[in-house]
Design brief:
By secondary structure, the protein is α+β, with helices and mostly antiparallel strands. It has 5 helices and 9 strands, in the order H-E-E-H-E-E-E-H-E-H-E-E-H-E. A hairpin with a 7-residue loop joins strand 4 and strand 5 (about 105-120). Pfam families: SIMPL. InterPro entries: 26kDa_periplasmic_antigen, SIMPL/DUF541.
C-alpha cells in the first residue's frame, strides 16, 4: 500500500517555530499563513514633546525647564484637556563638558530636559495643542502618532480577514495538489505587540492645517498560522 505523500505549503512565513512544528507532523497536512488588514480613519492622536535647556548652572537649567513644562500644562488645563490624558517625565539633568586636546575636561554648563506626552481625543485640536506647546517654550517634538479609539473593532476585522485568507489559501492549495482539505489541526496565533499606526513628525515652527491629519489613514494588520489535515 502506497503511503500518501505529505504536502507542505509554507506561504510567506517568517515564524521559524511554526515551520519546524509543521515539519514534525507525521500525517498528511498543509500549513498556511493568513494575512489581513483593515484601513481606518484616525480619530485621535498622541504626541510627545520635549523641552531641552542648557545653562551655566544646574539650578538655572532646572528652573527654565520646569517653567516651560508648567506653563504648557497650565495651558492644556485651560483648554479642558483631562489630566488623565497628560503625563510628564521627571527632570533629566546632566553636566556638559568641553574636551580640549590637552588638559582636563572643562565644565561648561548643565543640560536639563523634560518630556510631556499628550493624548488628543479630538483630532481637530491636534495642531492647536502643538501651537500651545510652541508658545510655552517647548522646543522639540519627539513623536506624533495617529490612532483610532475603537482599535479592538478594527483589530477583530483584520483578524477575521487573516482567518479567511488562511482558509482560502489552504483550500486552493489542497485542490491544486489533488487533495481534500480536512479539519484544522493546529492554530498558531500571537497578537501583534503594537498596533501599526501612521506616524507624522512636525517641526515646531511649521504650520499645518488640521485636515492634513484628518485625511490620513491607518492600516491595521493581523496574521494567523494554521496547519490543516489532508484527507
Amino acid at each position: 500500500m502506497k503511503r500518501v505523500p505529505t504536502v507542505i505549503a509554507a506561504l510567506l512565513t517568517s515564524a521559524l517555530s511554526f515551520g519546524a512544528m509543521a515539519n514534525n507532523v507525521d500525517f498528511p497536512h498543509l500549513s498556511t499563513s493568513g494575512y489581513g488588514e483593515v484601513v481606518a480613519t484616525p480619530d485621535m492622536a498622541e504626541f510627545t514633546v520635549r523641552v531641552v535647556e542648557t545653562t551655566m548652572t544646574a539650578e538655572q537649567a532646572k528652573q527654565s525647564v520646569d517653567k516651560v513644562v508648567s506653563d504648557f500644562l497650565d495651558e492644556l488645563t485651560d483648554q479642558d484637556v483631562s489630566k488623565d490624558n497628560i503625563t510628564s517625565s521627571n527632570l533629566y539633568l546632566s553636566p556638559q563638558y568641553h574636551y580640549p586636546k590637552e588638559g582636563k575636561p572643562e565644565l561648561v554648563g548643565y543640560r536639563a530636559s523634560r518630556t510631556v506626552n499628550v493624548t488628543v481625543d479630538d483630532l481637530t485640536k491636534l495642531n492647536q495643542y502643538l501651537d500651545i506647546a510652541l508658545n510655552a517654550g517647548i522646543n522639540q517634538v519627539d513623536n506624533i502618532s495617529l490612532k483610532v479609539k475603537d482599535s479592538a473593532k478594527y483589530r477583530e476585522q483584520a483578524r477575521m480577514a487573516a482567518i479567511k485568507d488562511a482558509n482560502s489559501k489552504a483550500d486552493s492549495l489542497a485542490k491544486g495538489f489533488g487533495h481534500k482539505l480536512g479539519s484544522v489541526w493546529q492554530i498558531d496565533y500571537n497578537m501583534p505587540s503594537s498596533q501599526p499606526v501612521l506616524m507624522r513628525s512636525m517641526a515646531m515652527d511649521a504650520k499645518m492645517e488640521s485636515n492634513t491629519y484628518q485625511d490620513s489613514t491607518i492600516v491595521i494588520r493581523d496574521r494567523v498560522d494554521v496547519i490543516y489535515k489532508l484527507d
